[in-house]
């Protein structure tokens, strides 16, 4: 496996603005810094807008859209609270709360805020660990929302919410610890990932692969629920729309970003578009969830059977 690209982050960090990339160039390795996001991958460096004194605000677009995403998601959380009879209402609100946490962290981890002192840079690394843990945990919660609709357990109960929160917390803590150990070298186990291809198998599996598995599982579970259990087709338009919007955002992040950066001389890259399309995907996912929790759909009863 040593000759493969599995586990390597260098090329991703060279061409994209990913929060995980902050971990591999910690402040102790590079004192010279143009702005908050640490440098040194050899690709197009995001310079953003100048603030004077040699300082730059690297990713103002992502910061603004992240603020918008926080406000919109809070509105969706409050809106969800009005759907008293909706299946999985509390569970879906947990997903939305997780997304709010992700967007708060994104302001600090990919926003390119001017952070020149060692303490400020350590703050960025701390937010990065929270960011990565929140991504994994939130998408795990989303996948479990795909199971909630089958009513294997009564939704909204302490048991249902407790199982989701405890399992998500385990993923959050595990991912966060690996990120912190990588950045601050608590154990020294991840020190080799600081050089070369920035190979870190643990973070690669948890941050790159696991969320993708969770997303695919959610899509499959909801497809079965809508087509086989509810016998409806219209909600699938919303589900496909959410998947398409999310995919477009990832294309901007991983494929188009470096070309946008080069074409604008480092003013912007694909990160702001990824943030925007992910927000649209979350909104469309909420629309999908809302559409399948209307009062006139077939409702599950005890024993796992459904009535119409």
Quick one: how many beta strands? 4
Which secondary-structure class do the elements indicate?
Answer: mainly alpha
Give the overall shape, derived from the CA principal axes.
globular
Q: Strands of the largest sheet, in order across it?
A: 1-2
Q: Measured on Cα atoms, how large is the radius of gyration?
A: 20 Å
End-to-end distance, in Å?
A: 53 Å
Unreliable stretches covering 5 or more consecutive residues? 27-39, 295-308
Q: What does this 3D model show about the protein?
A:
The chain is mainly alpha-helical and 308 residues long. The chain contains eight helices and four strands; from the N terminus they run H-E-E-H-H-H-H-H-H-H-E-E. The protein has helices at residues 10-15, 60-81, 89-109, 118-148, 158-184, 201-230, 234-263, 271-291, and strands spanning 49-52, 55-57, 299-300, 306-307. The protein has a two-stranded antiparallel sheet. The chain has a two-stranded antiparallel ribbon with strand order 3-4. Strand 3 and strand 4 (306-307) form a beta hairpin. The longest helix is centred in the middle third of the chain and has 31 residues, at 118-148. The radius of gyration is 20 Å and the shape is globular. The termini are far apart. Mean pLDDT is 85; it is low at 27-39 and 295-308.
């Amino acid at each position: 496996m040593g000759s493969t690209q599995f586990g390597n982050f260098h090329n991703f960090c060279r061409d994209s603005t990913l929060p995980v990339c902050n971990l591999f160039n910690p402040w102790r390795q590079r004192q010279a810094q143009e702005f908050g996001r640490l440098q040194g991958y050899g690709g197009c460096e995001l310079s953003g807008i100048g603030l004077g004194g040699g300082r730059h605000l690297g990713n103002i677009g992502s910061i603004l859209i992240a603020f918008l995403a926080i406000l919109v998601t809070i509105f969706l959380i409050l809106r969800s609270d009005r759907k008293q009879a909706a299946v999985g209402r509390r569970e879906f609100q947990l997903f939305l709360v997780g997304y709010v946490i992700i967007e708060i962290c994104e302001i600090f981890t990919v926003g390119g805020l001017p952070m020149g002192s060692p303490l400020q840079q350590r703050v960025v690394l701390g937010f990065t660990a929270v960011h990565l843990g929140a991504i994994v945990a939130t998408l795990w919660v989303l996948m479990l929302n795909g199971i909630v609709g089958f009513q294997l357990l009564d939704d909204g109960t302490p048991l249902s919410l407790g199982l989701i929160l405890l399992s998500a917390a385990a993923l959050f803590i595990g991912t966060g610890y690996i990120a912190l150990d990588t950045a601050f070298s608590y154990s020294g186990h991840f020190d080799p990932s600081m050089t070369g291809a920035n190979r870190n198998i643990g973070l690669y599996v948890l941050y790159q692969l696991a969320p993708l598995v969770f997303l695919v599982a959610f899509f499959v579970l909801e497809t079965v629920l809508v087509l086989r259990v509810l016998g409806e087709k219209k909600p699938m338009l919303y589900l496909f729309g959410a998947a398409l919007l999310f995919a477009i955002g990832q294309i901007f992040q991983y494929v188009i970003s470096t070309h946008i950066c080069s074409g604008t001389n480092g003013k912007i890259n694909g990160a702001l578009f990824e943030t925007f399309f992910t927000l649209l995907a979350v909104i469309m996912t909420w629309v999908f969830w809302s559409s399948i929790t209307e009062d006139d759909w077939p409702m599950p009863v005890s024993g796992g059977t459904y009535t119409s």
